Structure formats: C-alpha cells, structure tokens
Amino acid sequence: MELLFDIGNTHTVIGLHLEDKSFQIWRVGTKSFETEDELFSRLYTLFQVSGIEREDITKIGVASVVPSVNYIVTKLGVKYFHVETVFVTTSTPVFGIEYHADYPQEIGADRLANVFAARKDYGENVIAIDFGTAITIDVIQAGNFIGGAILPGFRMAMLALFANTAQLPQVELQIPDHSVGTNTVDNIQIGILKISILGIERLIQEIQRETSTEYTVVATGGIGKFLQGSSAIFDTYDPDLTLKGILYFLQEAR
C-alpha cells in the first residue's frame, strides 16, 4: 500500500491507497506533530482502528508546502516503515508535462499534484481550482502547465477581517442568493464569498479568451464541495485530486 501525505499550512491530509484503488483518508493538524515519533503515534492509532499493519506500507509519497515538516516525514519513512519517502517536485518528468513558468521550482507541490491528476484524469485542457487555506488556480493547456493564480482562501479572508476590525463578527460559509446585503452577516458573506466566486468565474472566462481554449474546470479542497452547486463554471468536484496526483507521481518516479 502507498501512504500519501498532502501537507498544507493548516491541515495534513493522510491517504492510504488501498488494494481496491480507493483511499482511506484522515485529516490532522499540521502543527499537531513536531517529531517523527509523534507523527507515527498518530498514524499507529489510525492504523489500529482500520486494521492496517505498518508492514502493509510499501511506499510513501508527499506533497508538502511546509518545508519544516519534510524532515519529519522523511525520518518517519526510514525509522518506522523502512522505505524511502518521495517528494513531489518538477524534477521528475510526469506524463510529458512541460512547465511554462518563469521559475518552475517555485510551483507548490500541492499544485503540482493537482496538475498531475487533472492531466491524467480530465484531459489536456483543464483548470484545477483547489479551495484550501489559499485558493490556487492551475491551468493545463495542450497537456502542459501554463500558469495560474493564487488568492486568499475564504476562511483566511474571514479571519483577517474579524481579527483586524473591532465590531465585525465571524460568519458561516454561506453564499447568499442575492447581491445586496441587508445586515452585517449578509454584507460579509457577499463581500468575501460571492465576490470571490464571481471573480474566479470572470478569471476563467478571461483565461479561455486569452488562450482561445475551452477547459474542463475541476474543483477540489474541502470547501470546493460546498461550492459545487453555487456556480455553473465548475464541471466537476474531485475530493481526492491532490492525493491522486501524489500517487501518480509516486508511480511515475519508480
């Protein structure tokens, strides 16, 4: 079995690729472990509940945007599973993808994983949108990565507004069906959620116009499911897009 880590700024998604090709998935706080021993302790408990032995793990693949955690996961692989840990990078060719970016080495590993999975599962012209702590938009044209965009995630924007104002409350992630707010909660939800969605929709339209290409638009990330029915711009929601990309990279990097 392949053990996969999608290490984000806030949460780490741990995925186990099972024999039936599905994923067993757990989510833990990235700051909840500071050593390989603490991480294994968390894993051991999860494995016991699911009836998994550590000898079942044959490979470890990682997409990390938190460099300080990379050493911990590497040590975990050596100490407890006796396997090499493979990190997602642009240095290993995957599906013949070329990176038309000024500095390919700066592309986040989570974004790379999304690109790999989007390319393999959804075709040559795909826009992958990951609704995480930050929202990332990655564009694949003719099978190659041509760039994208990054903007603050919804929770980040809401927390920033709440933390830096004296009287504005925290609000639920709910998109109003109207565009003129009649109370403070309404105003915030429209100002952060609805404007962000409208901005993403417009950006996708501009990308299609600039590149003269029609794209399949794939959403992922925990909040992506919540947005699935809120905009016609999204063609599909794939909750496992990043984990699948890590898996594909691990398979290609053999």
From TrEMBL:
Q: Does the keyword Hydrolase apply?
A: no
Q: Which residues bind K(+)?
A: 130
The cofactors it requires, by name, are: K(+); NH4(+)
In terms of CDD domains, this protein maps to: ASKHA_NBD_PanK-III (cd24015)
**Which controlled-vocabulary keywords does the entry list?**
ATP-binding, Coenzyme A biosynthesis, Cytoplasm, Kinase, Metal-binding, Nucleotide-binding, Potassium, Transferase
What catalytic reaction does the record list?
Answer: (R)-pantothenate + ATP = (R)-4'-phosphopantothenate + ADP + H(+)
Where would you find this protein in the cell?
Cytoplasm
Q: Could you tell me which NCBIfam families the record lists for this protein?
A: baf, PRK13318.1-6, PRK13321.1
Sum up the protein's function in the record's words: Catalyzes the phosphorylation of pantothenate (Pan), the first step in CoA biosynthesis.
Protein's UniProt name: Type III pantothenate kinase
- Native organism is candidate division KSB3 bacterium
The major lineage groups are: Bacteria, candidate division KSB3
